[in-house]
């Protein structure tokens, strides 16, 4: 089903804030990471999210003729690195689904490419998080992860 221009603008504002929030969140996780490899992966994810926000801001500007002024992102409070990573798998897969829906509801080739690219990055993030869990010596057994994520 097609999305209207005003719906898309509204979605873009939400996506920009989410992406900026995620970027800061991964930065904080990188600070807590137990290994150099984890730190580098998390910083790469943080940069990806910032880039997504910039792509969406560019699109917002193209559609509205106005520059989007993001709300300030409060610093994240992360108590448990492992739980935070598991939660991120859910968030990343949700973003993958959300961007996929927008991809299907727009006709403009540039917009479709944009949502395809961000969707691909979010899937890549979700698929890389088990590496981070493994790096901390966590057993990534799917059942164990599943039960602990839904409690
Ligand atoms: Fe993103
Ligand atoms: Fe992501």
Fill in the keyword field for this structure.
Ferritin, 5 helices, 78% helix, binds fe (ii) ion
Overview of the molecule:
There is one protein chain. The chain starts with a helix and ends with a helix. The protein is globular and about 45 Å long. It has a single domain, classed as Ferritin, core subunit, four-helix bundle (Ferritin). The protein is an all-alpha fold. Helix 1 (5-32) packs antiparallel against helix 2 and helix 2 (36-64) runs antiparallel to helix 4. It has helices at 5-32, 36-64, 81-105, 109-135, 142-150. Helices cover 78% and strands 0% of the residues. One fe (ii) ion binds at residues 19, 22, 49, 52, 95, 118, 121-122. Residues 19, 22, 49, 52, 95, 118, 121-122 line the site of one fe (ii) ion (FE2).
Bound molecules: fe (ii) ion
Residue fraction in strands: under 5%
- Find the count of extended strands (DSSP E, 2+ residues): 0
What's the order of the H and E elements?
HHHHH
CATH fold topology: Ferritin
Radius of gyration: 16 Å
